[in-house]
Design brief:
Radius of gyration: 20 Å
Shape: globular
Strand order of the largest sheet: 7-8-9-10-11-1-2-3-4-5-6-12
Number of helices: 2
Largest sheet: 12 strands, mixed
Distance between the termini: 61 Å
Strand content: over 45%
Number of strands: 12
Helix content: 10-25%
Order of helices and strands: HHEEEEEEEEEEEE
Structural class: alpha+beta
């Protein structure tokens, strides 16, 4: 019995060690990252979903994402989030309110501008298999944070085999919530101005400004 337990422990240890250094997953992730590094700026339609099977929650919001380097503007039905690399604005149209805060890159590891390189630091990556989405074959890869106290215990990436594009990802938190993002109508031929990534209060008459800086 002791020999069997020792053998089982060795098998599990070898498997876990291999999973943490999944060369197949790394090859796919590197190809995806290289694709987006070559694109100075892009925009896309994005669908954001909040799913909690235990609570029976399945909410979906549509919008648009624009990214240029570390800057991004996420325009959803219920909020607009803008980051210019120094300042972070969150605008809530329902109440005509904007929250302003300093941008801290250490607290923004899984932003729309960083999701393509998140695997490079602080994550194990595991190739799960293939899945067909909208008629196209995708590689499915799980990212698992080294930090056990991280907000998300797993991030599942869906990468199209045809062109190495990230078309969907799901973030799982410890409260049972799943945050799903789907990308469509990708456009890598745009050149947004720097002012595009700023929040101008003059464009929102009567907006309440809450400055947290």
């Amino acid at each position: 019995m002791k020999k069997f337990s020792l053998l089982l422990f060795c098998i599990l240890t070898i498997h876990v060690g291999w999973a943490q250094r999944d060369e197949n997953a790394l090859k796919i992730l590197d190809a995806m990252s290289a694709k987006y590094k070559e694109i100075p700026a892009y925009s896309a339609d994005i669908t954001s979903s909040l799913i909690n099977e235990t609570e029976g929650i399945n909410e979906e919001f549509g919008g648009k994402i624009t990214v240029k380097g570390d800057k991004y503007k996420l325009e959803l039905d219920e909020q607009v989030v803008i980051n210019n690399g120094e300042t972070f604005w969150t605008y809530l149209p329902d109440v005509n309110e904007v929250n302003i805060d300093n941008y801290d890159p250490d607290e923004d590891e899984i932003s729309p501008s960083k999701i393509y390189e998140a695997y490079k630091k602080g994550y194990k990556y595991i190739y799960i298999g293939d899945e067909t989405i909208n008629g196209k074959s995708h590689s499915v890869i799980d990212l698992v944070p080294d930090d056990k106290d991280a907000q998300y215990f797993k991030i599942k990436l869906f990468i199209a085999k045809a062109d190495n594009s990230l078309t969907q990802w799901i973030m799982f938190d410890k409260s049972g919530n799943q945050y799903k993002y789907s990308i469509e109508n990708f456009n890598g031929s745009i050149n947004p101005t720097e002012s595009f990534f700023l929040f101008d209060v003059d464009d929102y008459p009567g907006v309440e400004v809450i400055d947290l800086r």
